[in-house]
Design goal:
- This protein is an alpha/beta fold.
- Helix content is 46%, strand content 13%.
- It has helices at 3-8, 30-36, 58-64, 81-93, 108-119, 125-128, 130-135, 140-155, and strands at residues 14-17, 20-23, 41-44, 68-71, 99-102.
- It has a five-stranded mixed sheet with strand order 1-2-5-3-4, sandwiched between helices.
- The protein is globular, with a radius of gyration of 15 Å.
- The N and C termini lie far apart (49 Å).
């Protein structure tokens, strides 16, 4: 299997830019392909407490492959402004490297990435959330969270 097809096999993988990919939870062996593709940091927005959507030692696997690991546990049913700010900080810190963003199903990630693109990079709202809308339509919790963050930025 080629390196590209190994990445494409990752749950809900999307190549967002040449230096940024998003996905659902990679399997342990898929992190080898991520490292081989030149990614330098993995940012995980999923929780570590559900074995259906997490690995027993993801930080150890990622660091063992020479990548940096950032974990921002975002509760799917209760995202916070603080979670989003930590995500923005992680994106800014690593903006010159190759970043792999993931959560359980590429839903939290695409919502946060849309907010980052809109609020920090100045993309149009339509363009900023295009990837998210390709993956999923946010439920009430996420629609309200996204709108609240956009409204707070517009008010400030």
């Amino acid at each position: 299997m080629s390196a590209v097809s190994q990445l494409e096999a990752i749950h809900r993988y999307r190549q967002a830019t040449p230096s940024l990919a998003t996905s659902g939870q990679p399997r342990a062996e898929q992190f080898t392909a991520i490292a081989a593709a030149g990614y330098e940091v993995v940012i995980n927005l999923a929780l570590h407490d559900d074995p259906r959507y997490s690995l027993p030692d993801e930080p150890g696997i990622v660091r063992g492959l020479g990548m940096e690991y950032v974990h921002i546990p975002v509760k799917f049913d209760a995202p916070t402004a603080g979670d989003l700010e930590l995500f923005f900080q992680a994106m800014e810190t690593h903006r010159h490297g190759r970043i792999w963003l993931h959560c359980a199903a590429n839903m939290r990630v695409t919502a946060f990435l849309g907010l980052y693109r809109r609020l920090r990079e100045g993309w149009s709202e339509r363009q900023a959330f295009e990837l998210m809308n390709e993956i999923w339509q946010p439920n009430q919790t996420w629609s309200s969270f996204i709108r609240s963050r956009l409204d707070a930025a517009n008010a400030g």
